[in-house]
Amino acid sequence: MKKKVLSVIMASAMSLSLLAGCGSTPAATETPADNTAATETPAAETKTEEAAPAAETASGEVTNINVYRCTFNLATPDTAQVQKVQDAINAYIADKIPVQITLTDIGSGEYTEKANLALANNEINLLWTASWEGTIGTNDLYPAGAVYDLTDLIAGTPLYGSMAEGQWEAAKYDGKIYFVPVYKDNVEGYDFMFRQDLVDQHNWDINSVKELKDLEPMLADAKADGLKYPFLTQKTAMFYRWYIDKFDFFTADSSTNFFAVDRAKDEVVDTIQTPEYLEFCKLMADWADKGYISEDDFTKVTTDTTTQTQDWAISWWTDIPVNDEADARYGQDVTMVPATDRWAHSTSALGSCYCVTANSTEAQAKACVDFLGLLYTDSTLADMYTFGIEGEDFTYDANHQVTQTSDKYNHSMWESANATIVTPLDNEPANKADLYDAFNGGANTSSAAGFRFDKSPVEAQYTACAGVFESYGFPLENGGIPAADVESTIEKYQAALDEAGYQDVLAEFQNQYNAWKASK
Questions:
Q1: How is domain 46-185+349-441 classified at the CATH fold level?
Q2: Is there a smaller number of Cβ atoms within 10 Å at the N or the C end of the chain?
């Protein structure tokens, strides 16, 4: 059985006004941030004291860097324990690299706002971020000129050699390296997810399921059983997931899934006008009419914990190398069957990454590269940075796998360091590194991998179009429109998009993509 856990917590977004001050302009020229925004909550942010001296270079210089990271596993980082971890890291790396770190740990609920403020005040050298982050995400930082060009600094370093060249290629913006991906499940694919007890009860042949319509006999069984959610969409618009074999949805956002690269044509198209979109929306409407999809999904009554109940039969899952982790998340035995291929594309490699801020000096940027190079290749450092202090925050079992024991310092591999170097947890396969290599190595590479859309020329229209999605796209993709009205609703959807400026954005997408292809 293939099973998995996905634990992604989105940081809260705020205005881009502060981010505009994150460029390489000296701090003295920055516009001071609003002091009210700078008020800190000690329980949610932990900023440690300056680092201890390290081994010096031949020139006698040791460089201190300010590192900001986000805490997902704990609601409140512990100040004293983060200080201990920082001190232990600095002691360990002191005779290895001429770098010391000052570590700041911020709770996920406040990370976006507080890290953005610190960026505006030039207080960060090394920042954890992601393509899906709001305000300080990769697609925000690069256009704002807030990140350091690492292309020349990284070449030939242990950091560059820590992962395959394809990972670096997928992470590039305009042909240059600004972000350092965390090597994890850096490709994207989706699974059908089944409750195993129902598979056993009905003797479902789940391996015969190749596409959505193949689920229908099983959904009929689930409805006959009286289940509330035979097909649980998890209140998610899924066109841009179920159809990634046909389209590269390079915006990585369901609310703008009306722009995509048609893989067969290698052209940017209006997906709303494709036969695939009509097919999908009609199927969802038909299933809703038959009672297979509940109105709770398209009215957003279902919650993130609905999957932990026995009220559903079949849902979806984002594929990862160790799908067995899903059982713990859902509190029941679930089984996965692939619904799509896996794809490496422009956003998949940057689901977790680091960047060096543009305000950093060359010495600080080099120190960041040196630190990441050691973090990505030294298991002792990677474990310390991820799990904390051995004996206090975690222990190694007889198989030298990690048991996490702390409510003071607790991070995960996916937001810390490479899967090939962080020691597996005691509930993970011992050959986790091999599984990740096989998982990423078995993916297709999108023809659009490396393309980044700059929406600034049409930002107002783009934002307006995204707003239209909620009124039309979301209900269409969650069975909220009667089957008889799907085609007319799609026509209204397109008309509303056009009124919002869709054709301007589509033309800009097409022009940029064609120019990018010509430059390759």
A1: D-Maltodextrin-Binding Protein; domain 2 (3.40.190)
A2: C
